[in-house]
UniProtKB/TrEMBL annotation:
Membrane-traversing stretches: 96-112, 133-154, 160-181
Lineage: Eukaryota, Metazoa, Chordata, Craniata, Vertebrata
Protein name: Cardiolipin synthase (CMP-forming)
Enzyme Commission (EC) number: 2.7.8.41
GO MF annotation list: cardiolipin synthase (CMP-forming); CDP-diacylglycerol-glycerol-3-phosphate 3-phosphatidyltransferase activity
Organism: Phoenicopterus ruber ruber
Length: 194
């Protein structure tokens, strides 16, 4: 049982709150402000990791799940909104979203299997009962999102380099999906409650 109200957890929740704002700005084609909000979201990500690593009382199993969940929500919203703005192909966004939905479903399953009895809904959704820690693989889609978001601001929307990034991202998405499947036990570490 741990305190969920740590600074890193609050920063992760703030990043989740920035996701719909960022999506709205992109769909409305307000790319300059969207790029600024994206940088702000990146700063919250850096800060929550820095604080959790350097202050032991700020580190939590919930934070190890919240941080990647906030990243997944932010990246998913970015991909969908950038696709709506015709800056990322629909097929690539579909591939990434499907992979992330499968990963989130797996995390819910692991949570159920690792929660000690009695398994009630209130205990299942209570973040204070830590049962597993998520250790996601390092392969990220951040570079493509940043490049696509910056494309209309710096006028390189039709660049061959951006299209090359699409292909690289498709490859890393398939690779990371395989990695999550193959190294699942290393990705989710069950906490031993003695």
């Amino acid at each position: 049982y741990e305190n969920p109200w740590t600074i890193p957890n609050i920063l992760s929740m703030a990043r989740m709150g920035l996701a719909p704002v960022l999506g709205y700005l992109i769909v409305e084609e307000n790319f300059n402000v969207a790029l600024g909000v994206f940088v702000l979201a990146g700063i919250t990500d850096l800060l929550d990791g820095f604080i959790a690593r350097n202050w032991a009382n700020q580190k939590s199993a919930l934070g190890s799940a919240l941080d990647p969940l906030a990243d997944k929500i932010l990246i998913s919203v970015l991909y969908v909104s950038l696709t709506c703005a015709n800056l990322i192909p629909v097929s690539l966004t579909s591939m990434i979203i499907l992979r992330d939905v499968a990963l989130i479903a797996a995390v819910f399953y692991v949570r159920y299997k690792t929660l000690s009895p009695p398994r009630t809904l209130s205990r299942y959704f209570n973040p204070c009962y830590a049962t597993a820690q998520l250790k996601p693989t390092f392969i990220s889609k951040l570079i493509l999102v940043a490049a696509s978001l910056a494309a209309p601001v710096f006028d390189y929307v039709d660049s061959i380099y951006l299209q090359t990034l699409w292909c690289i991202t498709a490859f890393t998405t398939v690779t990371s999906a395989y990695s999550y499947y193959h190294y699942g036990r290393k990705t989710v570490q069950v906490i031993n409650n003695k």
